[in-house]
């Protein structure tokens, strides 16, 4: 587990976890569309051997993030460019203040 990498991405990880608990129709739609692309990708890790946090599979084999959380983080982007971030981390922070 690479704690530096996790710490660096903590805001996106938090957003993904929060959005997977407090479901929003728009976020779920975005996550579903992103997961279609992830499921077609050769980098997907279904067994969890390349997950940064064990037990959070399926994960992105490229960055090690849990796809259940990453696809729900609107400021997150695919590390190989298959889907973009929909907002910046600053915009995401402002949403959290509402």
Per-chain topology:
Blueprint (H helix, E strand, L loop, with lengths): L2 H6 L1 H12 L3 H16 L3 E2 L13 E2 L6 H4 L18 H9 L1
Antiparallel strand pairs: 1-2
Describe the structure.
This protein has 98 residues and is mainly α. It has one domain (3-97). Helices cover 48% and strands 4% of the residues. It contains five helices and two strands; from the N terminus they run αααββαα. The protein has helices spanning 3-8, 10-21, 25-40, 67-70, 89-97; strands at 44-45, 59-60. The chain has a two-stranded antiparallel ribbon. The longest helix has 16 residues, at 25-40.
Features:
5 helices; two-stranded antiparallel ribbon; globular; 98 residues
Radius of gyration (CA) equals: 13 Å
**Within the largest sheet, what's the order of strands?**
1-2
Q: Output the helix-strand order.
A: HHHEEHH
- Approximately what portion of the residues adopt beta-strand conformation? under 5%
Quickly count the domains.
1
Distance between the termini: 33 Å
User: Helical amount among residues, as a percent range?
Assistant: 40-55%
Q: What's the shape?
A: globular
Structural classification: mainly alpha
Tell me the major beta sheet: 2 strands, antiparallel
**What is the helix tally?**
5
**Strand tally:** 2
User: What do the pLDDT scores average to?
Assistant: 86
Identify low-pLDDT runs: none
